[in-house]
Amino acid sequence: MRVxxxxxxxxxxxxxxxxxxxxxxxxxxxxxxxxxxFSYDFTAPATFSNEHLTIKREGTVLVDREIRPFRxxxxxxxxxxxxxxxxxxxxxxxxxxxxxxLTLYWGGAHCCEYTQVYRYGASGxxxxxxxxxxxxxxxxxxxxxDASPEFVSGDDRFAYQFTDYADSSWxxxxxxxxxxxxxxxxxxxxxxxxxxxxxxxxxxxxRRADGQRVxxxxxxxxxxxxxxxxxxxxxxxxxxxRRAGRLRVSxxxxxxxxxxxxxxxLHRFLRRTGYLR
Length: 277
What we know:
It contains four helices and 14 strands. The chain folds into two domains: 1-90 and 98-134; 151-277, no CATH class. The protein is 21% helix and 33% strand.
């Protein structure tokens, strides 16, 4: 048995499984004069250990360190189960100097994903910045007119807020990485927000009639619409669903007891989190 990672770029080198089921995996990424190597051991069914990162710049090793968990939990390669690498080398902020970043996972049932970015500075060394995405995870997208990509995620504050986790959803969140700092820039991309709102509406429209299955996606959709300065329109639709009985819950769940309580809760939450201005 071998670990297999299908990578579009970079490489994964896997040692054969030992008698104990232990495999050593090496992932690589490079850009310009920067080469990164991320290695770890995997033991079936789901144990990772000895995570290690090496970064070379123009042939000189500048980072050679063990990757330890952020705060608590684990530091697993987040893309392992998707057969993709979790280490990347790319210029994230348009300064012609590639950053190296890892996409890692805490190791819980569904949370949490985080990114570690290593940035080369004037001091001749790499600094580290970590950003936690939570349940939604993250992908890199090129949304703007410039050559710098954005980190596309979701607002994890919506998880469990209006229903159980399985029925929760979250409006889109977009972050930039510039000069070593992550900044939330979601409202700069109204078309991307609109696309996510349509996705949320299609999702909730296909949910079963019981309100528990609708409330999470509806909250995320309303968040998207508020980001587009369409809160009034959103709450009009929410109230129409309430009057049609689509938000009633027919059995016990960790959520608001009545549809009216849910609508009031949603209004307060969107105002508190900055969606409703």
